[in-house]
Specification:
2 copies of one chain form a homodimer. In chain A, strands 1-2 form a two-stranded antiparallel ribbon. Chain A is built from 16 helices and 2 strands. In chain A, helix 2 packs across helix 5, helix 9 crosses helix 10 and helix 15 packs antiparallel against helix 16. The first copy, chain A, has one domain: Farnesyl Diphosphate Synthase (Orthogonal Bundle). Chain A starts with 16 loop residues before the first helix and ends with a helix. With 340 residues, the first copy, chain A, is mainly α. In chain A, a hairpin with a 2-residue loop joins strand 1 and strand 2. Chains A and B meet through helix 5, helix 7 and helix 8 of A and helix 5, helix 7 and helix 8 of B.
């Protein structure tokens, strides 16, 4: 789900926003990484750090923990609890990845074999549980009940979204409002909790906390829609991942949901065969792409992502202007850049 | 893992301790059950209450939530937060059962088909995650950071114990100290957190809180050793479960650990074949039982359970004497009664 690849520069040679965040937050990130390594250890069960390291050190961009660090620091926070919260957020994220890969029977993540493939489903389930409980210990250490409340609610939204995705998959009745709930669970809930707790720990006013929450929510939604659009190749020839994975897994993402809603009865019969019945044959992905194109479904989903990115930027309007808030602003454009 | 079956009476017609606890805590238990039903609901994902109800309403004795209620009430607690904590404990327990059954590939629990068999592993994993996050929301509502700390630590111990069990299984080097860590994770950590948070929420002194924690810990350990002894038929003809399940799953429980430590080289070759290599043939269970008998391993494990039950009772010494504390005292004898 991490959209950022290796360090990127634009045509003027400037670094991309995630890399600028890495530079701006370098010291904090180092402390977060140290804390993560420390807390993923287990005296008695060496399997735990083995599995965790595989995933945590696999070169993810630490986008979520950076959101927490950036939110706290842009408000002038001088303490150290934001580091604990950033590690918390990364542990929750890693725990959900471990369980997701079991549920999706994934074999590859970030270009490497998945933990479930290497150590089996059992280890992935139990190490995920362990990381979730470790995240819980970390956030308790901050002593902030408000933070605990936010992260408990985010955890429930994540789990509920995952179950909803499981039951909504292959069901053509899935509409945009269900889709939104699924992607809030899948991505936006943790983005928004990440930014919100950064504000809370910095002692920000209610307005500022709400703005940070809205920013994370909108950024996460834009991020996930882009991911779902790219799964059908995007609007141009940008190659981000294998085209058609969601189609083969019969997932009802925004492009398909839009196309189904405006499909002819013949097209509907096609969707019923390939999505609901799962009877997919050679040429079906091409046919699906043609229907998506005919109904402007990719453009529709792209526009939706752009609108959410804009909402993310608007949310930042009333926050202090500094390098960190400017970079968060540019991050919103960056996440939709691949489909813009 | 629930040791208590249907309502039982002893030879004098008196009810067994778990049933007496049900009577003594009837009103509270009703409130707990209402809260559990309320909180397992999900507006958007009906699969969640479906899976949860299957397990939560399957006739478990609610032993763990009763420990929380009993601990709080025996200290004169008059508030309502103990109800939230009791529901929390039951949710954590249910979440671990869902994940355990996936990991152990179980097909039956409490005489009914398991959730993983009925709805698939994916639902069990995700609904388990959901219940865990719901438990977390419930405990946050009590507003007690101390309670959150205890339950976060218990969750980590549970998950670590599960991973340890996974990696220690089939490994003849597993010794009694590793076994103790595994069963603390598997059973005693939640028992002891259940009693401890009952004391904390009641505002008890440090001495009393420590006594409640020790009671829960010792009770849980006794409980689990008894379970493991009964898996080899116990010391008499008591039939509690299918004999030999642990043997077939190549689990290193206390009877085997004791026997392995005193085995001849020929016996050791046998354990290597059946446990480490998993090459089990007709008659192997009988041979295992004969070796256990020859080394007094069942009696050794039984005596260990009895000693832990005694420790549980000693821990209660300095607590107020009333019907609830008396019943907890008798509960310690009750859990080892089947092997005594």
């Amino acid at each position: 789900m991490d959209g950022a690849g290796k360090e990127k520069t634009d045509q003027t040679g400037a670094k991309a926003p995630p890399d600028r965040l890495i530079d701006l937050l370098a010291d904090d990130l180092q402390t977060v990484n140290r804390l993560i390594r420390e807390r993923m250890a287990s005296e008695h069960a060496p399997r735990i750090p083995e599995v965790t390291a595989h995933l945590v050190e696999a070169g993810g961009k630490r986008l979520r923990p950076m959101l927490t660090l950036a939110a706290a620091r842009m408000l002038g926070y001088q303490g150290q609890d934001h580091v604990k919260l950033a590690a918390t957020v990364e542990f929750i994220h890693t725990a959900t990845l471990l369980h997701d890969d079991v549920v999706d029977e994934s074999q590859l993540r970030r270009g490497r074999k998945t933990a479930n493939l290497l150590w089996g489903n059992k280890s992935s389930i139990l190490v995920g549980d362990y990381l979730f409980s470790r995240s819980f210990q970390l956030m308790v250490e901050t002593g902030s009940l408000r933070v605990l409340d936010i992260l408990a609610n985010a955890s429930a939204t994540i789990a509920e979204g995952e179950v909803l995705q499981l039951t909504a998959a292959q069901d053509l009745r899935t509409d945009e409002s269900i889709y939104l709930k699924v992607i809030r669970g899948k991505t936006a809930a943790l983005f928004s909790a990440a930014t919100e707790v950064g504000g809370v720990i910095a002692g920000a006013s209610e307005d500022v906390v709400a703005a940070l929450r809205d920013y994370g929510d909108a950024l996460g939604i834009a991020f996930q829609i882009v991911d779902d659009v790219l799964d059908y190749g995007g609007t141009s020839a940008v190659i981000g991942k294998n085209t058609g994975d969601d189609f083969r897994e019969r997932k009802l993402t925004l492009p398909i949901i839009h196309a189904v809603a405006s499909s002819s009865s013949e097209e509907r019969a096609f969707w019923e065969r390939v999505i609901e019945k799962g009877d997919q044959r050679d040429g079906d992905l091409d046919r699906a792409m043609a229907i998506l194109a005919a109904h402007g479904s990719i453009v529709y989903a792209r526009d939706s992502a752009l609108a959410w990115a804009k909402r993310a930027k608007v949310a930042l309007n009333n926050l202090p202007a500094n390098k960190l808030s400017e970079t968060l602003l540019e991050l919103a454009d960056f996440v939709v850049e691949r489909v813009a």
